[in-house]
């Protein structure tokens, strides 16, 4: 296991700052996820840790040893790290065994040791029976496991994963999440994982680092990030959310465009932004916290994904599947609010980063 420290790391390309004054410590045995939209700097950070990029300023240390600073730069092959890329980068002319063995051959590892280590790691990633197959004979998920095995066979200090599941179909992607997490537990290895998929971050991580436009927004475990987002960007990026304007005064928030009231025990007063997650709204008959009209319903098997017009605002409601068709389109319903978040009024149109 290894500890990685980033100390005031900044990366610029000309006048463009990709990562700004980033400091963090990734502890032994952690599964760390760097989460954010495309272009936010997360892959650049991973590449700097790996040694494929050099910071413009700041210092990177592995187990207390400086690998990148103004005066020091240790090349990738000397850092003892393993990396899996978004594109599998599996050699098409080599079978599975030879693909996985390649890093050990570069090290001139004895043949018997190569055989032992490759067969062990193929067992870990459930590919033992495919050792002699060519990549063209494998599915996308199997090719991804080959890339994972190749990164693990050299017993790296840290495993770096750059959006490794983005090319897989939805069901396979979900299964691979749990396989990667199981491998991490089994080998007790540090993992730094880059993704823009909040579902992956929630299910796999010990801690999540949410990044936007090169700036760290929040660090925490998945539950804390989801339930207690530090700002509107985090609330919007990590999960689904409805935003409403309101005015907070005397323990109540009057919602603009709806003219309904929410009880509020927080400290913010004046104009605020209220965030309500769709799953925290329950459809009921009769009056409730809010009242509205069902505009549309979408049956997703496990949930009823609705749009409800209340006042001049349309809210997304993720209700129990059993409610589908119970009320019907254009029906008047009550909306019980189980929980909501309140933020200071935002002057920035942060949603521009999502487009």
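Q: What amino acid sequence fits the structure above?
A:
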């Amino acid at each position: 296991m290894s500890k990685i420290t980033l100390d005031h790391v900044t990366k610029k390309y000309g006048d463009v700052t990709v990562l700004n004054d980033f400091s963090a410590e990734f502890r032994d045995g952690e599964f760390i996820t760097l989460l954010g939209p495309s272009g936010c700097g997360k892959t650049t950070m991973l590449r700097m840790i790996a040694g494929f990029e050099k910071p413009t300023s700041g210092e990177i240390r592995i187990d207390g040893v400086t690998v990148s600073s103004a005066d020091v730069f240790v090349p990738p092959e000397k850092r003892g790290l393993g990396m899996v890329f978004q594109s599998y980068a599996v050699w098409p002319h080599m079978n599975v065994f030879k693909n996985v063995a390649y890093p050990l051959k570069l090290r001139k590892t004895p043949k018997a040791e190569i055989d032992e280590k490759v067969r062990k790691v193929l067992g870990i990633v459930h590919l033992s029976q495919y050792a002699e197959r060519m990549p063209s004979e494998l599915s996308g998920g199997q090719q991804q496991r080959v890339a994972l095995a190749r990164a693990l066979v050299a017993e790296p200090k840290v495993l770096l994963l750059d959006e490794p599941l983005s090319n897989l179909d939805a069901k396979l992607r979900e299964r691979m999440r749990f396989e990667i997490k199981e491998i991490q537990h089994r080998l007790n290895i540090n993992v730094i994982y880059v993704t823009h998929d909040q579902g992956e971050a929630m299910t796999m991580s010990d801690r999540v680092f949410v990044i936007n436009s090169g700036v760290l927004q929040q660090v925490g475990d998945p539950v804390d990030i989801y339930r207690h987002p530090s700002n509107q960007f985090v609330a919007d990026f990590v999960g689904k959310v409805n935003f409403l304007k309101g005015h907070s005064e005397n323990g109540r928030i009057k919602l603009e465009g709806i003219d309904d009231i929410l009880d509020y025990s927080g400290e913010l007063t004046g104009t605020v932004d209220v965030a309500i997650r769709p799953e925290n709204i329950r459809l009921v008959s009769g009056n409730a916290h809010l009242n509205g009209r069902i505009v549309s319903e979408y049956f997703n098997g496990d949930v009823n994904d609705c749009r409800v017009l209340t006042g001049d605002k349309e809210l997304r409601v993720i209700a129990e599947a059993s409610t589908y068709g119970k009320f019907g389109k254009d029906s008047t319903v009550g909306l019980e609010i189980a929980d909501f978040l309140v933020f200071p009024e935002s002057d920035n149109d942060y949603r521009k980063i999502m487009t």
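Q: And what stands out in the fold?
A: Residues 170-187 form the longest helix (18 residues).
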